[in-house]
Amino acid sequence: MKHANMNPSAEPSAQLLALLVSADGCFDDSALRRLDELRAFDQLGVRRAHFVRLVRDSLRHDPSPHADDLWLRSSEWAHVEQLMAGITDPAERLQLCRLAAAVITADGRITGDERTVYRHMLARWGIDDRMVAQAILHDSHRAGGSRAALRRRD
Questions:
Q1: Domains of the chain, residue spans
Q2: Greater confidence, 60 or 23?
Q3: Are 119 and 80 a contacting pair, CB within 8 Å?
Q4: Is pLDDT of 148 > 60?
Q5: Could you give the residue ranges of the DSSP H alpha helices within 64-128?
Q6: What is the pLDDT of residue 142?
């Protein structure tokens, strides 16, 4: 699948999600596995390898992260705001919040930084928890239907 220039908000979306993956100061395989399960890279329009580079680049910005300390300084918040401004489609915003919810819960705990960035996304874009829950249910039904279709073909 060719991802180049599919969507102008693909790169800001991928960068914002990569920032969330790295927000706890490490790159946990559980987040990547969860994104694979959700086919997030196809949804975002980026290659998996590119996304992994974005996460590693985000980790390099703060060489000594502390999972319990908020690491987002004003320069990082300016970058978050810039990335969010590049995502203008309401459906893409909701889908990104849905993917963000999956990422921040993938390892079984939510850090302060993860929660802060996620809640900021919701507030800035006027998305509430109910809307994210609906998106999760929609994905679950779609995935369940796909699995059932695959079982019927076997």
A1: 10-153
A2: 23
A3: no
A4: no
A5: 74-85, 90-105, 112-125
A6: 67
The DSSP-derived string for 2-59 is --TTS-TTHHHHHHHHHHHHHTTSS--HHHHHHHHHTTHHHHHT--HHHHHHHHHHHH
Going 85 to 11 to 101 to 97, the CA torsion angle's sign is: positive
Q: How many residues does the chain have?
A: 154
Residues 6+ apart with CB under 8 A from 46: 3, 10, 11, 14
Q: How far apart are CA 147 and CA 105, in angstroms?
A: 23
Q: Which tokens sit at 20?
A: 């969330």
Ramachandran bin of 70, using left for φ above 0, alpha for ψ from -120 to 50, beta for the remaining angles: beta
Q: Is the pLDDT of residue 152 over 50?
A: no
Task: Provide the phi-psi class of 28: left if phi over 0, else alpha when psi is between -120 and 50, else beta.
Answer: beta
Amino acid 74: pLDDT: 64
Average pLDDT value for residue range 18-30: 86
Residue 63, pLDDT score: 46
* pLDDT value for 70: 52
Q: Domain 10-153 classified CATH 1.10.10?
A: no
